[in-house]
Write a structure and sequence with these properties.
heterodimer, A: 441 residues, alpha+beta, 4 domains, 5-stranded antiparallel sheet, 16 helices, 13 strands, B: 267 residues, SH3 type barrels, Alpha-Beta Plaits, 4-stranded antiparallel sheet, 9 helices, globular, WYL domain-containing protein (chain A), CBASS_pafABC_assoc_protein (chain A), WCX_dom (chain A)
């Protein structure tokens, strides 16, 4: 059976989150390579899902879904995009059955036969009653995903919900656990399961009488919330890496637009026909904190080290294995190549030297603090009371350049000379952008 | 492990909510077990609780997905947890007042400042915790690093007073909001994805004019966040231009001129 693919939903939500509000229905559909009809259908499904999830909840964001997902971090720390992972479609009978079973097992041990009786009593009359095989199948599934446990002891087996994590903690401990999960899910990667757990713990606290506002004390500023969309592929890649297996996928390169002269090509969301079938041995994934983006690092026999933007991966499937020895060799080579990459660049190493200027004002030296915090493996040497030098050997300058530029006049590039010239040229052009402003002075 | 499990389905979750039931999956427990190795866990829990959690989770899969992840360009992590988080979140939760003693920027100490704690805020760039609070005497919205707080104690506040201050704080925050419009230079539209990702940490919307093929990002930010927005704009360099937001435009212009003077280039 083919695995249900959420590629369409992921791309849809990414476009809403990143370019929210920019496009008309037709433009949006065109860019995703779908019909307006499919656009409408997908949007309707997402809206229905969101409104079902928000029933009785305090949040009302997302009601203007078609306008784009506007992110206001002051409203809530609830990750809006999490609902992607709730999109698996199920028949109504199955949702009712699984809910009945799980509800019956919340605090009481029961056998398959007990549960079948409960289903017979409680299933809505217009729905078919499950037979014994169906109930056993459901129990097997629930046990596999870990939401129920089979108790020790012989047949007939007895089951109960696996709620220890909630039931065994006092109110105060549960609150500490909620906070911990909230903090870790928001500040570390990966985080989807953390957010799912956060949402369960929140309900558990409300059930114990805590006000919903209790869970709204923490805020996270400058958060790349769309990063969780790309975590969708993370576990497929993890499994392939653990088993030293190749991955096959259709790659929609977000960078491809660069090769085209036409500026009308929107590189964000290309039609599927523009994708390229790829096969690679996955080695590592890279998370770039500057943009909140993920990369897959792999090896291809023909092209060597490969880098793919995670958002371009679609129709991903596991392929044939390689030997552990080969995997280890490829991995070691990739790690060596990436060692001096600011993010993923593996161009020739360049020695960059920059002078940084301490702020004029007394008090905290925020320039120094930022260079120390973000300068990766670069080294700092004192130069004068007002300046210090920063040196780094880095693979190519394309990825470090924006960072150096972000310091504005607090950073002067000294070496290499050509990079210094580039900075001068760019600052001149940026100054030209605001020429009219200067004339107003 | 599959993030699109049947059990996560929205209809199941909503039906479970109706009966007050929970579905805690092995995936979530595995994630929790993995994160408990983090040093933050010892600051987040009392030793007894941590021991209990470790015991509950001992049979979960110990495979650590973080082994395959390489994090790049990350700010050094100063702190994930701060000992004051547990204390302060409980005062906030109870809608009580606070008396704070804290160190200030240029040296020196402010003692026994009365106020109302509003939110605990983590800055992902500075990787540090702040307390947002209302200083009753100075009628000002304050943001104080937890690192700088010397002492914090709870003070009694009536429910009416707490509601009034919360209302006031919401209005103060709203009044601090500023707007800017950033235009993406069409020659860089091929890098649209990268540019929009860079803005995805702000509250923003995007507009597109098909005729001119111009994208504009409408950013809403708090006044004290303008420095961070500016650093993002300098980060993107020639790709973007501010079209609305006079103060930001002035600052960018000034920044360019000052940078050029560092290189010995005058007007």
């Amino acid at each position: 059976m083919a695995r249900e693919s959420f590629d369409k939903e992921i791309r849809f939500l990414r476009m809403l989150a990143l370019a929210g509000g920019a496009y008309s229905r037709q433009q949006f559909a065109d860019r995703l390579g779908i019909s307006v009809h499919t656009y409408d259908k997908t949007l309707r499904y997402l809206k229905e899902m969101l409104s079902t999830l928000q029933q009785g909840g305090p949040q009302e964001h997302g009601n203007e879904l078609s306008e784009g997902l506007r992110y206001n971090y002051y409203e809530s720390a609830d990750p809006l995009l999490l609902f992607l992972f709730r999109a698996k479609s199920l028949k109504e009978t199955e949702t009712i059955r699984l809910t009945l079973l799980l509800t019956a097992l919340q605090s009481q041990e029961r056998t398959a036969r007990d549960l079948q009786d409960i289903c017979s009593e409680q299933m809505p009359v217009d729905l078919p009653l499950p037979d014994e095989k169906t109930v056993r199948g459901d129990l097997k599934y629930l046990e596999e995903v870990g939401v129920i446990v089979r108790l020790s002891g012989g047949r007939p087996y007895r089951y109960i919900a696996a709620n220890d994590l909630i039931d065994r903690l006092s109110d105060d401990e549960l609150l500490d656990l909620f906070d911990y999960v909230d903090v870790i899910a928001n500040t570390q990667v990966p985080s989807v399961q953390g957010y799912l757990l956060r949402s369960t713990l929140k309900k558990a606290l409300i059930k114990r009488g805590y006000h919903p506002d209790t869970m709204e004390t923490h805020r996270y500023k400058y958060h790349y919330h769309s990063r969780i969309l790309d975590e969708a592929h993370l576990y497929t890649i993890f499994r392939a890496i653990r088993h030293c297996r190749r991955l096959h996928f259709l790659y929609l390169s977000p960078k491809k637009g660069k090769n085209y002269a036409s500026q009308n090509t929107n590189p964000l969301f290309e039609r599927e026909t523009e994708g390229v079938a790829q096969s690679t041995l996955p080695l590592r994934v890279v998370y770039d904190h500057q943009y909140g983006r993920w990369y897959l690092i792999g090896h291809s026999p023909r092209l060597g080290l490969m880098k793919f933007r995670m958002e371009g991966l679609t129709q991903i499937e596991e392929g044939e294995p390689v030997s552990e020895e080969e995997f280890a060799r490829r991995l070691a080579a990739a790690q060596a190549q990436l060692q001096h990459s600011w993010v993923t660049d593996t161009l020739r190493p360049v020695q960059v030297v920059a002078r940084f200027f301490n702020p004029d004002r007394s008090g905290a030296n925020f320039v120094r603090e930022r260079v120390e915090a973000q300068g990766q493996w670069g080294t700092i040497t004192e130069e004068s009371d007002s300046t210090f030098l920063y040196e780094i050997t880095v693979n190519g300058i394309y990825e470090i350049k924006p960072w150096l530029r972000s310091f504005g006049s607090s950073c002067e590039v000294l070496e290499p000379a050509w990079l210094r010239r580039e900075f001068i040229a760019e600052w001149k052009e940026i100054r030209n952008y605001y020429e009219s402003v200067r004339e107003d002075f | 492990m599959n993030l699109f499990e049947k059990i996560f389905n929205y209809q199941i979750i909503s039906r479970l909510d109706e009966t007050g039931s929970f579905a805690l999956t092995a995936q979530e427990r595995t994630w929790l077990r993995m994160t408990l190795n983090h040093a933050a866990s010892t600051e987040a829990f009392a030793p007894d609780t941590l021991g209990k959690l470790e015991e509950i989770l001992q049979n979960e899969d110990a495979a650590d997905i973080r082994n395959i992840i390489i994090e790049k360009a990350k700010s050094r992590e100063r702190q994930i947890y701060h000992p004051l988080l547990r204390v302060l979140r409980r005062i906030i939760m109870r809608d009580q007042g606070i008396r704070l003693t804290y160190r200030i920027k240029h040296g020196g100490i402010k003692s026994n400042q009365s106020g109302f704690p509003y939110k605990l805020e983590y800055n992902m760039v500075k990787r540090e915790w702040y307390l947002l609070w209302y200083n009753t005497r100075h009628h000002a919205l304050m943001s104080t690093k937890l690192q700088n707080i010397v002492a914090a104690e709870e003070t009694v506040l009536s429910a009416e007073r707490a509601d009034a201050v919360k209302d006031l704080l919401r209005r103060l925050l709203e009044a601090r909001k500023e707007h800017a419009v950033i235009e993406i230079i069409p020659a860089y539209n091929a890098e649209l994805s990268r540019i929009l990702y860079a803005f995805s940490c702000f509250e923003k919307s995007v507009s597109y004019d098909e005729g001119s093929n111009i994208y504009r990002v409408h950013v809403t930010y708090l006044a004290d966040e303008s420095e961070f927005l500016l650093s993002k704009l300098r980060f993107l360099g020639l790709r973007v231009r501010i079209v609305e937001g006079d103060r930001l435009k002035d600052r960018m212009s000034e920044s360019a001129s000052k940078a050029l003077s560092r290189y010995g280039v005058g007007d």
